[in-house]
């Protein structure tokens, strides 16, 4: 039987008194590659925060690797939506990636040789070793995204969470980034959220839709009705003559 | 210059200036990167209340200012992180209230407050040996904290949200950093005055940013620039008989402008 990585049971979350997540149930198994799509403001980032244990749901249970999120989050690598806030920040690629080792060291303790080794290995995984001494802001959007990914990988996570990772990347970069994720997926479970249906569809193994309510059938098909309920308007899907089974066999 | 060094107050002034440059070079770099320049301004101005309180109670204003600046630092941090009041609103409120309290305290105190002008605009030439001792102790405390938490300060300056995700106690560190700024304000107060503290915490670090992309070098350069502006400023203020604190800051501002132009011109030539 496959191991359960993320389990959300009847999760409700109110953000400033406003409903953000309604009755969310989600079961993600080991080595899944799940894409969660949904409109902006539909609760996608909130869902990530719940999984990361940054916020506690008002109702419902969350378990990560059968642990409480506070415990389980050490097995999670996180690639945030915004990576570099200040393009001139005086730091090189190597030191950015090493930040991901923080959980192993904790307050005050210095990074060790082991951390430096892990940093180099993570940079190798994303093909960015040659850039290790570059100032981070000099890299292109796609290269920065790889560094962000390396920072998430440096702690050897078992689950990778990506929040809109492709917002600022051109199509060619996008393809190679997805191919990289596909390779990582041989060992790591991946959850990726995006508002862009097209961007996600080609590469992920399974798709869920979120707009307060989560529609997920543990598969890569989404019912057209579900999508329309999520986006609250008729959606013209590139379904290639399969009206109710969309986003499948679509290359 | 050599004849100047004969006087103890000049030697004290230079030593105090170097200490200030050292502290600012290091704290200021994080002030710039974490973008808390105006928080520093708020803390600095609201600590004026502490000076007034010192006069009112007849005790050393440095102690009451220390208390006041720490309280205002924690308040700004707490209000902006935990309530719905925006950070800049919190700064404005504390800024005004602190200064108003200072004025009220001073007018309530019976005696004459001769040194008040010195606190507002600074008088580096009036620094005493006991001031220097206090500055030395506080500097060591600040340096110790920065060295201990360098890794964490780097993370929260670079990406606070990521810090939270990997379990960095970001709120505690933010408040700790604001307290560091408060300590720095108290140290700088006597040298350049509250009004100009913000300049000293900002300008050398901002200037060094034009000159390097390496955080540690940025600190080093900003320490050097600060020291240089203190020495040049003192010499100029002595020769032309103008206010020392203000001269130092203007020299520092001139360096910023120069570095900016240098960088812009350099960029233009490399692009074209």
In short:
Chain A has 251 residues and is α/β, with parallel strands linked by helices. Chain A contains 9 helices and 9 strands.
Biggest beta sheet summary of chain B = none
Helix content of chain B: over 70%
Q: Can you say what the CATH homologous superfamily of the largest domain in chain A is?
A: P-loop containing nucleotide triphosphate hydrolases
The fraction of residues assigned to DSSP E strands of chain A is 15-25%
Total strands of chain B: 0
Mean pLDDT of chain A: 83
The CATH class of the largest domain in chain A: Alpha Beta
The first-level CATH class name of chain B: Mainly Alpha
Gyration radius of chain B (Cα, Å) is 19 Å
- How far apart the termini of chain A lie comes to 31 Å
Radius of gyration of chain A: 18 Å
* Largest binding interface between chains: A-B, 30 and 25 residues
Helix content of chain A: 25-40%
Classify the fold: give the CATH topology of chain B: ABC transporter involved in vitamin B12 uptake, BtuC
Q: Specify the overall morphology of chain B.
A: globular
Low-pLDDT segments, ≥5 res of chain A = 236-251
Order of helices and strands of chain A: EEEHEHEHHHHEHEHEEH
Taking strands numbered 1, 2, ... along the chain, how are they ordered across the largest sheet of chain A? 5-6-7-3-8-9
Structural domains of chain B: how many: 1
Q: At the third CATH level, what is the topology name of the largest domain in chain A?
A: Rossmann fold
Structural class by secondary-structure content of chain A: alpha/beta
């Amino acid at each position: 039987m496959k191991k359960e990585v993320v389990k959300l049971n009847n999760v409700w979350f109110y953000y400033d008194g406003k409903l953000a997540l309604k009755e969310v149930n989600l079961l993600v198994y080991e080595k899944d590659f799940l894409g969660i799509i949904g409109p902006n403001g539909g609760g996608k980032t909130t869902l990530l925060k719940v999984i990361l244990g940054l916020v506690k749901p008002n109702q419902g249970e969350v378990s990560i690797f059968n642990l409480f999120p506070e415990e389980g989050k050490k097995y999670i690598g996180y690639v945030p939506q915004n990576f570099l806030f200040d393009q001139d920040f005086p730091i090189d690629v190597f030191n950015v990636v090493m930040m991901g080792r923080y959980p192993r060291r904790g307050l005050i303790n210095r990074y060790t040789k082991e951390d430096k080794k892990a940093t180099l290995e993570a940079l190798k995984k994303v093909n960015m070793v040659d850039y290790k001494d570059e100032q981070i802001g000099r890299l292109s959007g796609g290269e920065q995204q790889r560094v962000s990914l390396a920072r998430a990988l440096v702690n050897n996570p078992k689950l990778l969470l990506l929040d809109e990772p492709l917002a600022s990347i051109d199509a060619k970069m996008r393809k190679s980034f997805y191919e990289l994720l596909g390779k990582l997926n041989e060992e790591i479970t991946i959850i990726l959220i995006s508002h862009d249906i097209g961007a996600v569809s080609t590469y992920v193994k399974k798709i869920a839709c979120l707009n307060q309510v989560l529609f997920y059938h543990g598969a890569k098909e989404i019912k057209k009705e579900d999508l329309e309920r999520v986006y609250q308007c008729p959606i013209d899907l590139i379904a290639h003559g399969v009206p109710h089974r969309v986003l499948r066999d679509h290359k | 210059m050599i004849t100047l060094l004969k006087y103890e107050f000049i030697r004290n002034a230079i030593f105090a200036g170097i200490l200030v440059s050292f502290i600012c070079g290091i704290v200021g770099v994080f002030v710039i990167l974490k973008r808390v320049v105006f928080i520093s301004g708020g803390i600095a101005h609201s600590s004026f209340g502490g000076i007034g309180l010192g006069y009112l109670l007849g005790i050393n204003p440095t102690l009451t200012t220390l208390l006041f600046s720490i309280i205002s630092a924690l308040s700004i941090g707490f209000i902006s992180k935990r309530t719905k009041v925006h950070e800049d609103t919190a700064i404005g409120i504390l800024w005004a209230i602190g200064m108003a309290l200072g004025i009220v305290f001073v007018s309530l105190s019976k005696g004459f407050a001769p040194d008040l002008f010195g606190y507002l605009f600074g008088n580096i030439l009036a620094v005493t040996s006991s001031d220097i001792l206090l500055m030395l102790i506080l500097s060591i405390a600040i340096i110790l904290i920065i060295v201990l938490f360098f890794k964490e300060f780097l993370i929260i300056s670079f990406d606070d949200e990521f810090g939270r995700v990997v379990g960095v106690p970001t709120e505690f560190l933010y408040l700790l950093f604001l307290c560091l700024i408060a300590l720095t304000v108290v140290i700088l107060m006597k040298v350049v005055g509250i009004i100009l503290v913000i300049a000293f915490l900002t300008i050398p670090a901002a200037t060094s940013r034009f000159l390097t992309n390496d955080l540690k070098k940025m600190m080093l350069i900003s320490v050097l620039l600060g020291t240089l502006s203190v020495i040049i400023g003192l010499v100029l203020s002595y020769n032309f008989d103008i206010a020392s604190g203000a001269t130092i800051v203007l020299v520092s501002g001139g360096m910023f402008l120069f570095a900016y132009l240098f960088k812009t011109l350099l960029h233009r030539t490399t692009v074209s």
